[in-house]
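Blackboard transcription, Thursday session:
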Amino acid sequence: MNAFQRMNTALMVDEGKKIFKVSRQAFVDPDILEAERAQIFDKCWLYLGHSSELPKPGDFVTRMVGGRSILFARDSKGALRAMLNTCAHRGAQVCREKHGNAKSFQCFYHGWVFGLDGTLRSQPGESSYAEDFKERSTSNMQQVPRFESYRDLNFICFDRGVESLSDYLGPVKEYLDVICDQAETGMTVVGGTQEYSMRANWKLLTENSIDGYHALTTHATYLDYLKSATGALAQVAFEGSARDLGKGHAVLEYKAPWGRPVAQWIPSWGEEGKRELSRLYDGLVKRFGKERADRIATFNRNLFIFPNLVINDIMAVTVRTYYPAAPDFMNISAWALAPKEETEWARKYRLFNFLEFLGPGGFATPDDVEALEQCQRGFRNSAEAQWNDISKGMGKANPSYDDELQMRAFWSNWNDRVFRVSA
Amino acid sequence: MQTIARTDVEDFLFAEAELLDEWRLPEWLELFTDDAIYYVPATDLAVDASPDNNLFYVADDRFRLSERVKRLMKRTAHAEFPHSRTRHLVSNVRIRKQIGDDLEVSSAFITYRTKDSVTDTYFGSNRYRLAPGNGTFRIREKRCLLDSEGLRAQGRVSIIL
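(Written on the board underneath:)
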């Protein structure tokens, strides 16, 4: 019996004594990773991509989702398709390009040709096959078991019996609405994908993405930079709250002094920026009234959707998803989202803002990478130094954005799923 | 203007690499013009893509580049504390064309970075726009085009390439 099988929980929790600890074995044990694959990545809704990535019929992208090779395409009728990128014949990956536009997909091994919807169109030597071969669904590329969307965010699930995406997201939808409503004509993914990795367990990035506590020390140089850049700060203090959204989802919603392209002005954006931002703000007030407009424009949101999707609406909007390759290694993909109708000025400043903080070449993310990799290195001592502490803010009626409620929400759900406790 | 030989450009690029490898970043910054830009685009973009409407890894104007240097020289730039050891190899240097008084230059690079017993390799090409003057050059633009598929192996680009 291995160590994982002997465990029936990775948590040590005592609400009365305000104790919430996570076993560091959860970050290093290959058996835990196997259980995560079976109980989480094979059963939860996973982010596939944004509808704006495939504007025209025939547009496609290929990407790895939950360990599978997925072909995400817009078919000739304009419908989005999520297919398992494997030939019905002998299993080769059919599409080998990362993105592009196609009339059909041909497997080069024996030359089978599939339509944009995955239907078998032709195969060399057709007369040697059964007469009804092409009518059989088993001759087509397989669609993923479940494929659903919310506000142009497309998700897949490998568990056919899973609840609807809408039920899975639950109160998350309210926050997706607030984020997407900053655009009048919808959000779009900006060109360019940030693809990177960390030599660290994937759950460390979940924690880090919704961690309001680490900024002052981990990101000291970013805050130095904001102070030394003339007019980079608004007269706004860090202030806000955290909310457990159920099913492991969580959100931070808070005010911060950085500029927001929709719509918190900072002096360095000048008079042109001021005019642009007040135009955007007035538009929001007109569409939604002042209260919701203020929420959309001046509050930041770090939204975590279980198990591995982060949508941060901060100095820019980023969508980030990540998967374990090993207990101590993860691959990360990140995109920038922006309102479709945004002016050139706003798009430029949004992206300039994005790179200041975000991504593996920014002024902040490399230090997150370092922190997470140092945690993973520290976990080498986990046989003796066994527990992580995430008790900050326990017992508070209104946990602050820099407490750890949101991490406890994640870990509780993770623990229930991995150890198959019914929630 | 007088003829500029490839070897002149090579000498300059080799000296630039040495400043980076010796972490003499404030001196390295002095190589750049006041209107300089330093770009590392995402690797799924066209080579001449603009950071105004595409997501890059790095898109610094001269001010932000100076702040990047300031940051990297601090103990609180955790990703580079203690400083990693690097070796910037520069090769395949070519003068592409003249743009006004400036030269467009390309080179191939391999940069090794070692820290905490892990060695990462960055490789690709650099596109420079160099402004000749006083027997040397200043860098008006440095666009670093990674050949790798993203930063899947390296994880980050916390050094200057």
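Lecturer's comment: Chain A has two domains: 54-157, 171-418.
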